[in-house]
Specification:
This protein has helices spanning 2-16, 23-28, 31-35, 38-54, 67-81, 130-138, 146-156, 171-193, 208-221, 223-229, 231-241; strands at residues 56-59, 94-98, 102-105, 113-116, 118-120, 125-129. By secondary structure, the chain is an alpha/beta fold. The chain has a single domain (2-247), classed as Collagenase (Catalytic Domain). A hairpin with a 7-residue loop joins strand 3 (102-105) and strand 4 (113-116). The structure holds zinc ion (ZN).
Length: 259
């Protein structure tokens, strides 16, 4: 398409401009960034810069929405699409950032509010708590990462449905996806009901959409455990994301939280 040709040319031109000197140290504070090889780091930086440049970023309440905050959030979102055929989450237009956790209306009870770390809306927005987003990057091994979670929802929504099924290349892949996801979703529900310890966050028992989001968190944050306990789930996520975090060379002693 001619339009995307112009857009890609504009992006290539933009990426030739060196990024500000202060940005690289921010990337280097991210544990997952240090686990990537040099080529992937360079690609991740490019994707991050485009996400920062092209999305509408809005601070909420009194947040001072600095470049550092944008890098920490956008770099995590970039990791999910690093090896996908993607268009920079083109249906995600706006990113709203609260300084900390926030409250949203309860869907079933207008008198109540829900304590919220992040939200992906069907109209193309992602809303995030900065403290939760930063904590997700600081601790990259606990299986909790609100940025991965919400942007996995945005990938899921690419076909307009939040059903745990992102866009897949063909019918055969789709059928395998549904079979494997259902098997592990049912297993998580059974484990949770029996109070067995789980690699996947039990929040994923809510519905298939939440299951895909928590499976994405575990894939990048607890890849070895996920591979061991949910091998076929790990493999279809590995095929989908075209990444193999279980074989990343992760630094032995991750950087302690700096908040
Ligand atoms: Zn969710």
């Amino acid at each position: 398409m001619i339009f995307s040709w112009f857009r890609n040319r504009r992006r290539q031109k933009f990426l030739k401009i060196p990024m500000p000197e202060t940005w690289l140290p921010v990337f280097q504070e991210l544990n997952f960034f240090n686990s990537l090889n040099a080529a992937d780091q360079a690609d991740l930086i490019d994707i991050t810069r485009i996400l920062i440049e092209e999305k509408n970023w809005f601070p909420c309440l009194d947040l001072d929405l600095t470049d550092k905050i944008k890098i920490i959030i956008a770099a995590q979102a970039a990791l999910l699409i690093l090896r996908l055929d993607h268009d920079y989450y083109h249906r995600t237009s706006s990113i709203y950032v609260y300084p900390t956790d926030f409250y949203t209306p309860h869907p079933e009870d207008s008198e109540k509010q829900l304590h919220t770390l992040g939200l992906a809306t069907s109209d193309g927005s992602v809303i995030l708590s900065y403290t939760a987003s930063h904590a997700g990057a600081d601790n990259d091994r606990d299986g909790h990462n609100v940025v991965f979670h919400e942007f996995a929802h945005r990938l899921d929504m690419a076909d307009n449905w939040v059903d745990g099924t992102p866009l897949l290349p063909d019918k055969e892949t789709f059928n395998t996806w549904v079979r494997v996801m259902t098997e592990h979703y049912d297993q998580l529900k059974a484990d949770f009901q029996s109070r067995r310890r789980t690699v996947l966050d039990p929040y994923g028992t809510q519905d298939p959409g939440e299951f895909f989001a928590v499976a994405t968190e575990a894939f990048f944050e607890k890849p070895k455990q996920l591979h061991k306990k949910h091998t076929s789930l790990y493999r279809i996520l590995q095929d989908f994301y075209r990444q193999d975090p279980a074989n990343w060379h992760r630094p032995k002693n991750p950087t302690p939280p700096t908040r």
